[in-house]
Design a protein that fits this description.
Two copies of one chain form a homodimer. By secondary structure, the first copy, chain A, is an all-alpha fold. Chain A has a domain of 137 residues: Tetracycline Repressor, domain 2 (Orthogonal Bundle), CATH 1.10.357. Chain A is built from nine helices and no strands. In chain A, helix 4 runs parallel beside helix 7, helix 7 crosses helix 8 and helix 8 runs antiparallel to helix 9. Chain A is elongated. Chains A and B meet through helix 1, helix 6, helix 7, helix 8 and helix 9 of A and helix 6, helix 7, helix 8 and helix 9 of B. The structure holds a DNA duplex.
DNA sequence: CAGCCCCTGTACCGACCGGTCTACTGGGGC
DNA sequence: GCCCCAGTAGACCGGTCGGTACAGGGGCTG
């Protein structure tokens, strides 16, 4: 827990590859389901390098991967929101994107955070904290967007929380049912409701 | 989906204890996080008995546990719905109940299905199928209730799916954030919306 | 061109994983 | 009264787990 948190995670570097592949494995198998050996062979990195860059072992690596996944999700959201101009449309794009991932992976790649979050009860504090922070970050980002779109909204945080919960749940349902239908249904209804709530008397944006 | 799949799972019997403790462990740790030895010691059953009653090993046991968990959730839902008289109120009671579980377990016990569903990509077909069936059962139960409460509703299945997704997501969020706030927020807003959608011009039930 | 040191590669470790096997026990049917 | 076998008990298996130790290696310094 030194001040220098994760400086050496350049995309192509050894730590970078390690974190990226870990994030991918974590996404479809969860923490206990993703073996260290599997991560190593998939990223083409020997064990010695792992413990050089991440003395904390699997937990530290997972924590970093969770942070990167969260950052990726937030970045995607910001991008969609900027392009679409409304939170409702951004949510739709967001769901579409993860529906694609799901379908392309034969319904193995769900939410990058969900698999780890679901078993957070059996995880080290390091990872546990990171998962909490990741969720807060995601909710906070939505809340900021909502407040920006309609400064008069009474409770942006509540709406943001509802959005994240709905999307997260839809992703889980989609994975379990092996169908993108839940995502389509939820995003459609959710987007409409967000628009209605953000612009009570106006154009649905 | 045979009518008689697991006849020997009486509550107090050896298979019964096995399935119940497995369900509990699965709920907080997921499939790979719950060790077989741990299940055995927690239920006070030796290994020989396990493989006598469940020749399929851990996967068969987990599949059975998932089925039992799903049945329990459905039963709780039906009970709440019967007592409350409206789907909206039932959802609220449903969320309250799982919020209690969460808080009582120091935020380890989330949705009994979520942890397994989240890592379903790395599971045997047996378990995978059971998780899908469980989710379908849950959604179907909600849909039936909705249709019963308002036969004119245009798409009970869609609303049911949205409900399950929202609750599932709220449970996940609550577990990650170690707070029941997401559940409270989501259930409140969800219940209100369900009432509005089921009784467009009338009493909010 | 020598030395150093960050990083890599790999052999190895004990613990534990899920699963198999066999010995034993006790109670109901004949 | 005997037997039989469903059910229990636990020793044991190979494999894999996450983690450690240490011997190179190679590029940047001097």
């Amino acid at each position: 827990m030194e001040p220098r948190k994760s400086p050496g995670s350049a995309p192509g570097s050894t730590p970078g590859r390690l974190v990226t592949t870990t994030a991918a494995l974590l996404r479809e198998r969860g923490f206990h389901g993703a073996g260290l050996t599997e991560i190593l062979t998939a990223s083409g990195v020997p064990k010695g390098s792992l413990y050089h860059h991440f003395p904390g072992g699997k937990s530290e690596l997972a924590a970093e991967a969770v942070r990167q996944s969260a950052a990726g999700m937030v970045a995607a959201l910001e991008r969609f929101a900027d392009r679409a101009g409304s939170t409702g449309a951004a949510v739709r794009a967001f769901c579409d994107r993860y529906a694609e991932d799901l379908a392309a992976s034969d319904f193995r790649d769900g939410c990058p955070l969900a698999a780890v979050a679901a078993e957070s009860g059996a995880l080290h504090e390091t990872v546990r904290r990171e998962i909490g922070a990741a969720m807060e970050l995601l909710v906070g980002t939505f809340a900021r967007r909502i407040a920006a779109e309609n400064p008069a909204h009474p409770d942006p945080a509540a709406l943001a929380m509802e959005i994240v919960a709905a999307v997260e749940g839809a992703l889980l349902l989609a994975k379990a049912l092996r169908s993108t239908a839940p995502l389509k249904t939820v995003s459609e209804r959710l987007a409409g409701r967000i628009a209605a709530e953000l612009h009570p008397r106006g154009h649905p944006a």
